């Protein structure tokens, strides 16, 4: 039986990785929570099983998860698990902020937690645990990012290499692979009403799911059904990041500014829908030729998913961590297209949203955002946080 070690066993991982892995059979998952014991405690109380509530299809009992480690309680156990030769895949859904990147996509060695991990105090971060654990490892392993980052495997490999160099540790990259991957399944926050139906650890999700992985495994893998194993993930992930995730981010900020709460409410607004349709069409223009086929059909399918009132996908959930998400979702297509458009409007909506929030925004760069908004040129300062200072001329300020 194969084993997967997964960092960040939140709702998305339990609706995506765990669902696919259960369907494959013969593999189990050990989760890792860096700080909170809540998921471990909740799952342990029901033998690590939970219901997946698939909209329109009923519930499915997931039994692939067998344990959850809490790093804050037992860091040695996590490091030992990363180094364990019985673990053949180390996967992660830690969100963009979990990679501790700077505005240009490199490991931010000035990040206080990364700096502390480099000095050997801790670890505290996903990158710290992963790198120091890999440095202890003497067997092949696949490190599989399941986060919404373009070139996520390449980004993760670069972070590990930069951390290893800074910390003076050696990782055997010859036996460690970092395939790129694209994941997709809308997983809204679980409501109290759903929890009260019987399973407090239930995860709601949509019927649609997709997973495309680069064919670059260093060790064995599950026979995941319906997963596409391909030579190059880039066309798939770029289409998804720029068309789906970019539209989601635009809707989150523009929708919240307009007073909406959920995606299906915001997309029903005639003007916001027009902007989203425009954003998708403009994003499609920036894709490589082999990814442009079928983008009109793909956009229509996305709109149908956004229209679904049963998912109750909160805009505030999507709006979190904007400084980490926007470089890939909106900045990249705006730069590639080189003309004003809906992506620029989405970036401006993010700035307006941040400036109008009562209290602090939910973002790892919250202090830098606060400082930028107090700058004599707040728009310019905010663009600097997402690596878009050179695109000022493409963003309308009105």
UniProtKB/TrEMBL annotation:
UniProt keyword annotation of Membrane present: no
PANTHER family the record matches: MANNITOL DEHYDROGENASE 2-RELATED, MANNITOL DEHYDROGENASE DSF1-RELATED
Annotated Mannitol dehydrogenase C-terminal domain residues: 232-373
Gene Ontology molecular function: any one: mannitol 2-dehydrogenase activity
Gene3D superfamilies the UniProt entry points to: N-(1-d-carboxylethyl)-l-norvaline Dehydrogenase, domain 2, NAD(P)-binding Rossmann-like Domain
Organism field: Ascidiaceihabitans donghaensis
Keywords noted in UniProt: Oxidoreductase
Keyword Metal-binding tagged: no
Enzyme Commission identifier(s): 1.1.1.67
Protein name listed in UniProt: Mannitol 2-dehydrogenase
Chain ranges of the Mannitol dehydrogenase N-terminal domain: 3-225
UniProt superkingdom: Bacteria
Coiled coil residues, start to end: none
């Amino acid at each position: 039986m194969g084993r997967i070690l997964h960092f960040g066993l939140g709702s998305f991982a339990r609706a995506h990785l765990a669902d696919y892995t259960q369907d494959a059979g013969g593999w189990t998952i050990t989760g890792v929570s860096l700080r909170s014991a809540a998921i471990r405690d909740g799952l342990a109380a029901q033998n690590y099983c939970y219901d997946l509530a698939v909209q329109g299809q009923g519930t499915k009992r997931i039994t692939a998860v067998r344990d959850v480690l809490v790093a804050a309680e037992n860091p040695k156990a996590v490091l030992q698990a990363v180094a364990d030769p019985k673990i053949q895949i180390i996967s992660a859904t830690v969100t963009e902020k979990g990679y501790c990147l700077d505005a240009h996509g490199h490991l931010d060695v000035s990040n206080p937690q990364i700096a502390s991990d480099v000095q050997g105090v801790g670890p505290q971060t996903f990158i710290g645990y992963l790198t120091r654990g890999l440095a202890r490892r003497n067997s092949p392993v696949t490190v599989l990012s399941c986060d919404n980052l373009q070139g996520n495997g390449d980004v993760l490999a670069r972070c590990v290499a930069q951390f290893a160099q800074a910390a003076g540790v050696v990782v055997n990259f010859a036996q460690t692979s970092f395939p790129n991957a694209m994941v997709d399944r809308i997983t809204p926050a679980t409501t109290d009403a759903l929890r009260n139906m019987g399973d407090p650890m239930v995860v709601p999700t949509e019927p649609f799911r997709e997973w495309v992985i680069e064919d670059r495994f260093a060790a064995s893998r599950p026979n995941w059904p319906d997963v596409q194993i391909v030579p190059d993930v880039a066309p798939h992930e770029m289409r998804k990041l720029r068309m789906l995730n970019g539209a989601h981010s635009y809707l989150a900020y523009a929708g919240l500014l307009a007073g909406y709460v959920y995606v299906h409410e915001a997309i029903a607004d005639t003007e916001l829908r027009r902007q989203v349709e425009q954003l998708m069409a403009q994003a499609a223009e920036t894709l490589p030729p082999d990814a442009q086929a079928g983008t009109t059909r793909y956009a229509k399918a996305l709109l149908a998913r956004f229209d679904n009132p049963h998912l109750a996908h909160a805009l505030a959930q999507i709006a979190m961590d904007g400084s980490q998400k926007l470089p890939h979702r909106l900045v990249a297509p705006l730069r590639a297209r080189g003309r004003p458009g809906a992506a620029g409007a989405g970036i401006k909506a993010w700035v307006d949203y941040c400036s109008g929030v009562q209290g602090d925004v939910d973002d790892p760069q919250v202090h830098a955002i606060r400082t930028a908004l107090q700058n004599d040129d707040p728009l310019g300062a905010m663009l600097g946080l997402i690596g878009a200072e050179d695109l000022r001329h493409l963003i309308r300020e009105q």
